[in-house]
Structures are given as C-alpha cells and as structure tokens.
Write a structure and sequence with these properties.
Structural class: alpha/beta
Helix content: 25-40%
Number of helices: 10
Shape: globular
Number of strands: 8
Strand order of the largest sheet: 1-2-3-4-5-6-7-8
Oligomer: single chain
Strand content: 5-15%
Largest sheet: 8 strands, parallel, barrel
C-alpha cells in the first residue's frame, strides 16, 4: 500500500469537488483557473465533466499536459439503460468517447442509468447494459479509451444504476467480453459493502480502472449532494484503498466530493488545500 503521508502526487481532482459539474453551483472558476490551481499544488491531474469541455477538448487536454499533469478521466457516458437513456443512444455515447479521445484521457466513466423499461429487477437490465457497453467498448478501443463501470450505492438503484456492488460491475464487465472494460471504485458507493475485499481479491485483479475518494457522513442529508470530505465521515478509507491496491491498482486517487451546502460554498483555494491535507492524513 502506498504511503501518502508526505506525498500527494497521486492525488487528482474531480472538478465536482468544486461544484463545476452542475450549473449554478461552485465559485465559477474557469477551466484554466482549475488547471493552474491543481498544477501549482503538484497534483497528478484532473477529471472533467463533459458539460465543462464543450468544443475545447483538444485545447484543454493540451493545457493540462503542458502544466505537468494528466487528464485522469472524463465523466461520463450518457446512461446506457433506463428511462433517461438518450435516443438515439449511439450518437451521444460515441460523442462521449470522442471527447475522451480528444482530451487525451484513457478512461471514460459509465454511470449506467436505471432499470430498462419493461423489465423487473436488475438482471435483465444488466444483460442489456453488457451488450450496449460491449458495442461502445469496441468503438472506444479504436482510440485507446477504456470504459469504467461504476457501481453506485443501492439508494440509487432503479433510476440511476443497475449496478449496486463491485461484484455486479465486475460481472457485467466480464459479460461484455471486452478487454477495455473495467470498474471504478468510489468510496461513497462501496464503503458499506462487507464483501468488497473478497470480491476484489477474487475477481478484481487488473480490473480496477479508477479509485474515487470522499467520505460518507453519518447524518447524510441529501443522497446525491451531501458527501463528506475525507476524514469527516465513517468510511474506513485506508482499508478500502488497501483492498483496491491489492488488485494491482497504482493509479491516481480521484477526490470527488458532491457538497452543495458545504464545500461548494467555500473558496476553491481553501477546498483544494483542505483536500490535500485530508488526503495525506487519513487516506
């Protein structure tokens, strides 16, 4: 397990931590300000959201690399199943791959969407998801882009996800038959799962493409927009990271804190400084 106590060079910012993934939130920093602030702090890189990029993917990717960092990933594909899946799916899904390729990132995250209309439970939806992910992975592979299936906390089951555990995500990844499909492990979504260590030890070697840091507040007041900064909640952060790194994962640790009523209301410089201090002390 890596020692982060005096080293934050593997820490990456997901811009959601500054509120930039949702309109009307955050301090309104430009993308250039975010890049410069992260570079000045010696961070590994940045994960962007599609709405921030527009038609400037090449320009933004070049600026990140010129600053000495990397574009760690892109959030996210459209929903691939469920009532909120765009129609036609193929156009928007391929556009997300094109944006990732233009940014120069190797990872595109998948939040799956909810249960497919006309189905019950999640197994049929997972089969449909696997087939659609396989098609997208075939396209993404042409650009060297991998797809990371992200299981979500079960409270999002039905409308935002059909993958509630790492086991779900790994099984669907296997069903695709595509080498460039793996999983992203997010503390917020897996902290509760007592089978996580066994699942990753048995099936996760070489399959983890991303690791997301935050914390679960004991008194969570909004299931989407009230995540905790690392150390402010009840997740066993070091135990989870040890489990993830035991799979061979040695990539960036991406801080992703959705926090409409706390961190998004603070000065972004203070958020970044507190984030790095927490990263070194408790992660």
């Amino acid at each position: 397990m890596r020692d982060f106590s005096n080293d934050h060079t593997a820490c990456a910012l997901n811009t959601a931590t500054l509120g930039h993934n949702l309109p009307g939130h955050g301090a309104g920093w430009s993308t250039e300000q975010v890049i410069d602030a992260c570079a000045a702090r010696g961070m590994a890189g940045i994960v962007f959201w599609r709405r921030e990029i527009g038609d400037r993917a090449v320009q933004i990717g070049d600026r990140v690399r010129a600053s000495g960092m990397e574009v760690v990933g892109l959030c996210r594909t459209p929903f691939l199943v469920g009532s909120d899946m765009p129609k036609p799916l193929s156009d928007d899904a391929r556009a997300s791959v094109d944006m990732a390729a233009a940014l120069g990132t190797k990872m595109l995250t998948i939040v799956t969407g909810g249960t497919e209309p006309g189905t019950k439970g999640v197994l049929d939806s997972q089969k449909i998801l696997a087939a659609r992910t396989a098609q997208l992975a075939d396209y993404a592979g042409q650009f060297g882009v991998s797809l990371a299936l992200e299981p979500l906390n079960p409270m999002f089951g039905g409308n935002r996800t059909v993958l509630m555990t790492a086991s779900d995500a790994l099984r669907v990844a296997d069903m695709t038959g595509q080498a460039n499909v793996g999983v992203a492990i997010d503390v917020y979504h897996v902290w509760w799962d007592t089978t996580l260590a066994e699942t990753l030890a048995t099936h996760g070697t070489g399959r983890v493409l991303g690791y997301h840091l935050c914390d679960w507040l004991e008194e969570t007041r909004d299931m989407l927009l009230d995540r905790g900064m690392m150390g402010d909640g009840v997740a066993d952060l070091r135990a989870i990271r040890a489990t993830v790194e035991a799979t061979g994962y040695a990539g960036p640790c991406e801080v992703e804190v959705f926090s409409a009523n706390n961190w998004w209301k603070r000065d972004p410089n203070d958020v970044l400084d507190h984030m790095l201090a927490a990263y070194k002390s408790v992660c």
